[in-house]
Amino acid sequence: MLRSLRSKPVAIALIGLMTITTAALAAIKSAPKPTTDSVTIHSEMAKGEVTLSHQEDGTVAIKRDCVRFPCKIDISSLKRGEYDVTLTNGDESQKMVGLYKE
């Protein structure tokens, strides 16, 4: 098996990429689900920038610096729909899909 893995560097890279993506998805959570006025973002990161973007077209709806987590964000002005949540701190980035605003 080791010989076949050495001859397949692309497969090894893809496995590593899937592992990183799965770990990042597990590390970020939001509550309540669904939400109307505010959302609390939980993360293993110490601090970071939270970006909420529309799932339909990717446009940024809210961008906020959180000095610590959990971080509560007012989303009462957002229109109803699904949003992607991305956390960024330097080179580290985490993404979660499925925040629904009623």
Helix/strand structural class: alpha+beta
What's the story with the biggest beta sheet? 4 strands, antiparallel
Q: What is the annotated CATH architecture?
A: Sandwich
Shape: globular
Rg is 17 Å
Q: Give the N-terminus to C-terminus distance in angstroms.
A: 50 Å
Number of helices: 2
Average pLDDT, rounded to a whole number, is: 78
Question: Looking across the biggest beta sheet, what order are the strands in?
Answer: 4-3-6-7
The helix content is 10-25%
CATH C-level category: Mainly Beta
| Elements, N to C (H/E) | HHEEEEEEE
Can you put this structure into words, describing what you see?
This protein has about 100 residues and is of the alpha+beta class. It has one domain: Immunoglobulin-like (Sandwich). It contains 2 helices and 7 strands. The strands form 2 sheets. A 4-stranded antiparallel beta sheet has the order 4-3-6-7. Strands 1-2-5 form a 3-stranded antiparallel beta sheet. The radius of gyration is 17 Å and the shape is globular.
SSE topology:
Blueprint: H1 2-6, H2 9-26, E1 28-31, E2 38-43, E3 48-54, E4 60-66, E5 71-74, E6 81-89, E7 92-101
Antiparallel strand pairs: 1-2, 2-5, 3-4, 3-6, 6-7
What labels would you give this structure?
46% strand, Immunoglobulin-like, three-stranded antiparallel beta sheet, alpha+beta, four-stranded antiparallel beta sheet, single chain, 102 residues
